[in-house]
Specification:
mainly alpha, two-stranded antiparallel sheet, 7 helices
């Protein structure tokens, strides 16, 4: 697919880093992510995505809270820590891969879930999301000698269930998930704003609503 790209902002008012020129707002709005491989640092993409995230964040967060509040009530420290770590790792992946779809995220989460199983199944390497999550979990496991594999697997399963409930179209689950985190959590240590973005283990648990 070809797009009308200009060499100056006389006709196209938006600078497109993916196409290397200026395009109209109509072209940007109609084809971003779907047909144009937008980089995560594009300011127009960021503004649009944050708006979409906010629109659907409440439904995702409500589904999340229904499952997570019992963990707080039980003071399940490992479960809460690991779930937030998993969510932040997934957020980093999605921040770096704005073209990802709900189906790809669910496939990646299910791959990570299988890799935590005590019964290892020989299978092909997971997709990009799955490999990212498995690598992050392996690093987390190395840093936590008391790692509870069964509990970790149940937290992955919980996130799959929440995500699946909200994955109605190609990116509804992603938009709700990212909006839920952006609205209720401090992400300043998760994804940095420069091109050398990195994910860091959250320094503390942030209880929603506090």
């Amino acid at each position: 697919m070809s797009f009308e790209v200009f060499d100056q902002p006389a006709k196209g008012k938006r600078r497109c880093p993916a196409l290397g020129g200026w395009i109209t707002a109509l072209t940007c709005g109609k084809h971003r992510i779907k047909d144009i491989r937008c980089p995560s640092n594009c300011k127009h993409l960021g503004q649009h995505e944050r708006y979409r995230h906010a629109k659907v964040s409440d439904e995702f967060h409500q589904a999340w809270a229904e499952k997570v509040v019992p963990l707080y009530q039980k003071q399940d420290r490992f479960g809460i820590d690991f779930l937030l770590f998993l969510e932040f790792a997934l957020y980093q992946f999605l921040h770096e891969h704005p073209q990802a779809t709900d189906a790809q995220v669910l496939e990646g989460l299910k791959f990570a879930h299988r890799q935590l199983s005590p019964i290892q199944v020989i299978e092909a390497v997971g997709n990009a999301a799955g490999k990212h999550l498995v690598a992050a979990i392996a690093e987390y496991q190395e840093q936590h000698p008391q790692f509870d594999i069964e509990k970790a697997q149940s937290m992955v399963e919980m996130l799959i269930e929440i995500f699946d409930e909200n994955a109605k179209n190609d990116r509804d689950g992603i938009n709700g998930f990212m909006g839920h985190l952006e609205t209720h959590f401090d992400l300043s240590t998760v994804v940095k704003t420069d091109e050398d973005a990195e994910v860091l283990t959250p320094p503390k648990i942030i209880i929603p609503g506090t």
